[in-house]
Amino acid sequence: MTTTIDAPPAAGTAARIREHVVNLCAGPEGGHLGGSMSLAEILATLYTRVLRVDPLDPARPDRDVLLLSKGHGGLALYAALAEAGFFPPERLGEYARPGSEFMAHPHPEIPGVEMPSGSLGHGLALAVGFGLGFRLDQADRRCFVVMGDGELQEGSVWEAASVAAAQRLDNLVAVVDRNRLQITGATETIDALEPLADRWSAFGWSVRQVDGHSCEELEAALTEPPAPGRPTVVIAHTVKGKGIPFVEDQPRSHYAKLGERQHARALAALRRGAAS
Questions:
Q1: What CA–CA distance (Å, rounded) separates 225 from 50?
Q2: 2 part of a folded domain
Q3: Strand ranges, E, within the chain
Q4: 20 to 30 A Cα–Cα from 125, which one of 87, 165, 172, 233?
Q5: Is the bond leading into 58 cis (omega within 30 degrees of zero)?
Q6: Which residues form the Transketolase N-terminal domain (predicted)?
Q7: 5 inside domain
Q8: Which residues contact 232 (CB under 8 A, 6 or more apart)?
């Protein structure tokens, strides 16, 4: 089981995740760029500082479980798993090739991926099932589910939130990637979510809000002991397309196929940011 001892710094891991994502989006099929870039610190912190997992034994029975409900962030998940040692980073080059396991949305053929995802609004209900299962097994395990903010417009999310609170699942942590954009525009002009923290609190959840690009704030929120008998939600305020100025905070970054010049510009911007 991995620990945080001698783990690489989360911020450095996040920087490498972003470079992997940009390289994948420069491939022949492109990829979901913006929502993967906003996830970098969230996934880096989870895999280097929080999750009890074993890259050499991904199915280990006492592992924590991470579900990526926002399956369009799959490129960031692939990069995070590669950086964590679940498979060699060179395998990322298989993305979008005919017959490859590395598709636009993740599925369990890839080491470290627990469940297929992509159809939004289902991840939290699956996480409730894991949490109940852990309780029935009397297992000291936790389930983390990473969600997009756009998918919070799905009614199934709030049904699952209600059940999680009613069942007092304090082994369940939801992380909301609150980049405030969905494929067709701003969440607050399409189907407003605010006051989002109050909404989760009204459903009986313990709410924590952080800068989703601060590994320190994420680590503090994700490692703080849960409130007894209450599931936890971490609302991580992020920027879609983070790290690439020419696509940051723009809906058009949702899916991109970067040309040669765009690819070079994006990498240069990331490296300037990492050096500053």
A1: 12
A2: no
A3: 65-68, 143-148, 172-178, 181-182, 185-186, 206-211, 232-237
A4: 87
A5: no
A6: 16-264
A7: no
A8: 170, 172, 173, 174, 205, 206, 207, 208, 226
Looking at residue 180, its amino acid is R
Q: Is residue 4 part of a domain?
A: no
CA distances from 162 to 86, 171, 173, 196, 231 (A): 34, 15, 14, 15, 10
Give CA angle at 201 (198, 204), nearest 5°.
Answer: 155
Q: Quick one: tokens of 182? A: 């969905």
Cα–Cα distances (Å) from 160 to 9, 189, 200, 259, in that order, read: 34, 25, 12, 41
CA distance 89 to 268: 21
What does pTM read for this prediction? 0.96
Question: What tokens appear for 231 in the block?
Answer: 């599931």
CATH classification of the domain holding 247: 3.40.50.970
Residue 57 is classified by DSSP as: S
Cis link prior to 98 (omega < 30° from 0)? no
Asked if the model's pLDDT at residue 2 lies above 80, the reply is: no
Q: What is the dihedral of CA 230, 74, 105, 22, to 10 degrees?
A: 160
Domain that residue 269 falls in: 10-275
How many domains does the chain contain in total? 1
pLDDT tens digits, 177-229: 999 999 999 999 999 999 999 999 999 999 999 999 999 999 999 999 999 99
